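User: Hello, beginner here. Can you help me understand these amino acid letters and fold codes? It all follows right here:
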Amino acid sequence: MIAKDIEKKWQEAWEKDLCFNVKEYDKQKPKYYVLEMFPYPSGKIHVGHLRNYTIGDVIARHKRSQGYNVLYPFGWDAFGLPAENAAIKEKVHPAVWTYQNIEYMKQQLKKIGLSYDWSREFATCDPDYYKHEQKFFIELFKKGLAYRKESVVNWDPVDHTVLANEQVIDGKGWRSGAPVERKNLTQWFLKITDYAEELLSDLKDLDWPENVKIMQENWIGKSEGATVKFEIQGSNQEIEIFTTKPHTLFGASFLALSYAHPILRDLKDPKILAFIEKAKKYDDRSDQTKEGIDTGLKVIHPLKPDETLPIWIANFVLADYGSGALFGCPAHDERDHEFALTYNLPIIQVIDNEKEEINISKSAYTGEGTMINSEFLDGLDSLQAKGKVIEHLAKQGKAKKEVFYKLRDWGISRQRFWGCPIPIIHCEKCGILPVEEKDLPVVLPKDADVTGRGNALDTHQTWKHTACYKCKGPATRETDTFDTFFESSWYFARYCNSHAQGMTDREACDYWMPVDQYIGGIEHAILHLLYARFFTKAMNEQGYVGVREPFTSLLTQGMVLHHTYKDEDNQWIYPDMVVNVDGVLKDKSTGKQVFKGALEKMSKSKKNVVDLDSILEEYGADVIRLFVMSDSPPEKEIEWSTNGIKGCQRFIKKMIDFSDQLAAIGKDKLVAGDESKKVLSLMHLTIKTFTEDLAELKFNKAIARVRELYNYVSDLFYKNILVPEIKDAFEIVIRLINPITPHVTEEIWSTLGKTSILAKTPWPEYEEVYLIQEQVTLSVQMNGKLKGTIQIAVGSSEDIIKEEALKLVQKDLATKSLKKAIIVPNRTVNLVVA
């Protein structure tokens, strides 16, 4: 039987037996909720996506067999720009394109053998889904957590929409890659800043990768300092500036404002106005040239009333950060130093450190030290001076101690059609009104003219114009739609009961939440993961969930990499279109020469993807699943390798052939012998270590261990050492590797005469009595020098020996790198380092 026939057979068996439809509130079992970040229905799944889903499936299958009541659902993050762009190109409604893709991708996922509970499936573009978030938005609006204001926004000129700060990467739109512009627009915001401290402090309780927590900490950006008031000379106006370094005020030589600062509105100088227009196109990358213009205005120095500081407009001061103003202390800030050198502004040193060589004419000194040139602060430690200057200015009403967060409120307005409509109407008489609950959901029109030029909702007259339910007069609907991260910020709670009448089923959420294991890419560390945490806290306050954090543990899986290819016209080429002709790479469809590029994350835009359908046809699902799980630790990147795939294919074929031969051996041929004890010992040790490795998500190590057990028992078999324990051990091999290669192991299990379904078979347990193994002592050397000894079970693989040796010299390797390990069986391990 070929792979696809085996896979189809067992997929149908699982579905018929409802193996994966979870039982609600099973009090006899502990619950376990495993979830991958749900996909955008872009059209096709490629093998780059497969690793994410396979990891989740292995965990779900393993936990089920351990006796957990497992929730493992799936759905679709279905709103977004690609559907709208496809609608423009294909001249179809985005919904048509989206649901067609969902149907195709669902069939692809089923072919992989993923054990989802499909009864909970939904797409976020379903009105039955987004009507609940519209109601939730109205609740936030009434609570003051959703508000509307004019603000400077990031405008993507290609996608014609506003981007949140988190969606601007190196000054470019995260999807289009176009340079982002700054515009003043009236936008809707959610007050995520009200939760800044809790979002920060709760990170410590999460079992998340440290780098993800650090990224969120940095994005929230807690700073302790002071807000200082600067009086504008000849005016009763003041400029407020938050600073973490108020003790450097005696070194201030200028003020710098954002182009959007309100005091600039009355300036008429054409040069200044031209600079403001130019500054709108600036982003905050550190490699950009710092530019500015003197406004001619001055402020009175808060510590030296007889002196003034010039007010400049600078392109590096962000409109939406702090008050959009800062004071420049060039001697102790690198950016200010660069600006001062450019415009010949004074550089005044106010911190000295005898232990450092300081030359402020060349570079800023940004460390701590002793105060100088600072009047009443002279001689103080710079940290002490910080508190003293705040106290001094506070007595004069010129400053107050404050905590500041870099985190900005979440701008949720998008000027695109294919998104959830914001449930607001605008009435000239009654103002801004939320749509009445009985009129939810506000659905998108089916006859919209989606052209890509502006917002199709804004030009749809019959949809846009409505009546005010208060005064019965004319009103208009809000034509902005929600940022699509709105939908992905709560979907995990909906899965607890996707058919609930309300936003969530609180009883179901109390049972299932939080998600025990969440899986997804690290690119979502700031965007999705931060928003989901905020939403969960807000949902908790509205009574929708009982938890304050959505995800207990997080695994950020590494990407699948593949070489890129370009032809002689600099066009991207799919890998399966590249052939080697006499040592020269060519495009088999055009004959043009092809050039091999770098290893990069699989991406449709660069065409370095491997089509899932064709690879399933050639190798089968289990081979691909085994490859993506066995090559590297799950958090590390893996390179797509045909040789690696074929190696996995050979291993699976060996198991199939072995099972056929083992099944054909009569019981009378299996006789106890000297190897019986060793087989039992290795079998129970493998159960123990494999189970521990799966619990720690060390899938590649687990696979190496089970292959070691298989190699041992098959070697005995082919040497005609036919002890009965060979069959027991092989059955354990099949049971252990079943979550990774579920189809072929079900088939082998059946071949061995078993009538049960492995997907519903309990996980094997080891017995301590068999773990006592014959040990051997190995000396461990580093570059020939003895470092100690290790105890190893006789017959251990080189991987296990190397692993134990490296544990012994862990501290020594902190400053060195391992080049190779030379293992002399049962004697020594020599680690060569440099």
